[in-house]
Design brief:
Layout: E1 2-5, E2 11-14, E3 16-18, E4 27-29, H1 41-60, H2 63-67, E5 71-73, H3 78-82, E6 87-88, H4 91-110, H5 113-133, H6 159-178, H7 197-214, H8 220-233, E7 244-247, H9 269-273, E8 274-276, H10 278-286, H11 292-295, E9 302-305, E10 318-319, E11 322-323, H12 332-340, E12 345-349, E13 407-411, H13 413-425, H14 433-447, H15 454-457, H16 469-479, H17 485-494, E14 515-516, H18 518-523, H19 525-533
Parallel strand pairs: 6-14, 9-12
Antiparallel strand pairs: 1-2, 3-4, 5-8, 7-13, 10-11, 10-12
Helix pairs in contact: 1-4, 1-5, 4-5, 5-6, 5-7, 6-7, 7-8, 7-13, 13-14, 13-16, 14-16, 16-17
């Protein structure tokens, strides 16, 4: 069954099956479905596009945000904070490719060039995520099981083959969009750009920038020529208005922001569980970054030093300075209600008597990889309720179902500019590194609604361009908020930012990849074993051996990065 999701959540199913009657000689067609042989590519587009966008968001706002220390969990935190990952199957990504393959074939049959371009772009984006996350993977003979039984267990192509194929497909897609041919296009089914071929070409070329830079250590000549060509064309995402994004309808849990509290039976426990990482907050505070207040909420209860206190810490909270006898904490919902009325809450401690360490800032995160993050900052209510009044929540916008800032973002102007800044630093002919760096910073601030503070921010110590790769990647890391996969792959490629694993991590370094899933190792064992054997064991691979999150795929083998 192929599920077709439109912008209005309309679902169209394609079901082709054979009946048992009359010796299996008759074809029964679902009267409410569409035969794949006559499927309209417009109807398939939103399913592929929405699934790819939301899957990418769920990575970058989920476990990968934990890896790059944008966020941490203080409940159900083992996999998120400590990278305690088991085998991870990629079925969802290949399901998208099957739908996408049908869209491409129908577009070719109908000579719909726009849809061919969309299909090649999405194929590249999806395969790019697969190889970025796992390493070698079925590519050349993928999603061809209906053509031959021999292809039900396809061979794994090398990352070199996959990245090369991605680049070639994106170049073809760029040419198709450049033609301007919109034959057969129904704009409303394009949930990224509403049928704007020029914007699609900018998206495609931005993905080309991404993947050229991805292979820059392994295929430097290809990367240099490719990035210079894209820059010279001038066709790539330059303004946030052209970012590749999709918004949320907000009508159900399935089409709302992932931490929307409206669909959480436990008053937003999924939202409360996700806390900002102290790594991120430290950097935002150091740089006096205006994005801090957009992304993070102040603590409900701030610690205040009081040398006159006769006890080490207040046992109870204070409301507008007045101690609330018997009240150690309120619920998150109660704090929200009280703060809307203008009340403030504090808790005091005597710095002479208290022997622990407290963070007294208004914005407090969870340090990476703590053994018991729910106890952090002397939380009076540890456990799975995760209502730590002394640690910040994410900003209230992330409680909502939808909103102007709540978008799944696949590629951005900020990313384009930071890639070009890095390319310029390498000495490639793409203009000024400082110009592109400044444009990247500006684009990110504009994306998050604080562009009016750019002139002040760009002159801050630590922000003003210093001509180093570390600074470019650091700002790109900040700009990848909610799209953290790019930050992970940049770290893997460059070693920046210089992130350290926390004390509870099984290894003292960050992981590099996902482990191949059980479906492959059990049912495509011979091909999976060959791919696993091409991974490079490191001192951190541990008991999992080669199929470990700390083993090196081809893309970083021989580079000495990131550790």
């Amino acid at each position: 069954m192929l599920k077709i999701l439109t912008k209005t959540a309309f679902i169209l199913s394609i079901v082709v099956f054979t009946s048992c009657e009359e010796h299996l000689t008759q074809l029964n067609e679902n009267p409410n479905g569409v035969d794949p042989a006559s499927a309209n590519p417009n109807m398939i587009m939103p399913t592929v596009m929405s699934n790819a966008a939301f899957s990418y968001l769920n990575l970058g706002y989920g476990d990968i945000a934990g890896v790059v220390q944008h966020t941490q969990h203080d409940g159900w935190f083992d996999g998120y904070n400590h990278y305690n990952w088991g085998p991870q199957d990629w079925n969802g990504w290949y399901d998208m490719l099957r739908n996408n393959d049908l869209m491409y074939k129908r577009a070719v049959e109908l000579d719909y060039k726009f849809h061919q371009g969309v299909a090649l772009t999405m194929r590249s984006f999806i395969f790019g995520n697969i190889t970025d996350l796992w390493g070698d993977a079925p590519y050349t003979n993928a999603v061809k099981g209906n053509e031959s039984n021999d292809l039900l267990t396809p061979a794994f192509d090398s990352q070199e083959v996959i990245y090369t194929g991605i680049i070639e497909d994106l170049k073809k897609a760029s040419e198709l969009f450049a033609s301007g041919d919109k034959t057969g296009v129904l704009n409303e089914y394009d949930i990224y750009y509403s049928g704007n071929a020029a914007n699609w070409q900018k998206f495609v070329n931005t993905l080309l920038l991404r993947y050229y830079m991805r292979v820059s250590e392994k295929m430097p000549a290809v990367a240099k020529a490719g990035i210079e060509s894209i820059h010279n064309s001038g066709i790539y995402i330059k303004e946030p208005a052209n970012d590749a994004t999709t918004s949320f309808i907000g009508a159900t849990a399935g089409n709302s922001w992932p931490t929307a509290v409206a669909f959480d039976s436990d008053q937003g426990s999924n939202f409360r569980r996700k806390k900002p990482a102290q790594t991120l907050i430290d950097k935002l505070q150091q740089l006096k970054d205006p994005r801090l207040q957009v992304w993070v909420a102040p603590v409900h209860v701030q610690w205040v030093a009081d040398p006159t206190l006769t006890t080490a810490v207040d046992e109870f909270i204070r409301k507008d300075g007045v101690i609330q006898q018997g009240v150690r904490a309120l619920t998150d919902v109660q704090y929200q209600e009280e703060k809307k009325k203008g009340h403030t809450f504090t808790r005091r401690y005597n710095p002479t008597l208290y022997t622990g360490t407290l963070n007294t800032d208004a914005y407090v995160g969870v340090p990476a990889g703590l053994r018991q993050p729910d106890y952090h900052n002397n939380n009076p209510t540890p456990g799975q309720t995760v209502q730590n009044q002394h640690v910040s929540q994410l900003a209230d916008i992330y409680r909502q179902n939808s909103g102007n800032l709540l978008k799944a973002r696949l590629a951005s102007a900020a990313e384009s500019h930071f890639i070009l800044a890095e390319a310029a630093l390498k000495g490639w002919s793409v203009g000024s590194a400082e110009m592109h760096y400044n444009n990247g910073v500006k684009a990110s601030l504009e994306t998050w609604g604080v562009g009016n503070q750019y002139d002040t921010y760009i002159q801050q110590a630590g922000v003003k361009f210093n001509n180093t790769l570390a600074q470019i990647i650091e700002q790109k890391w900040l700009a990848s908020w909610t799209a953290a996969t790019e930050a992970w792959f940049d770290f893997r490629r460059t070693g920046f930012p210089a992130l350290k694993a926390g004390p509870a991590s099984a290894e003292p370094v960050l992981p590099l990849r996902f482990n191949y899933g059980d479906n492959e190792t059990n049912y495509n064992a011979s091909n999976a074993d060959q791919a696993i054997n091409r991974l490079e064991v490191t001192p951190h691979s541990g008991l999992r051996g080669k199929n470990s999150q700390w083993s090196k795929p081809w893309i970083v083998q021989g580079t000495g990065k990131p550790w």
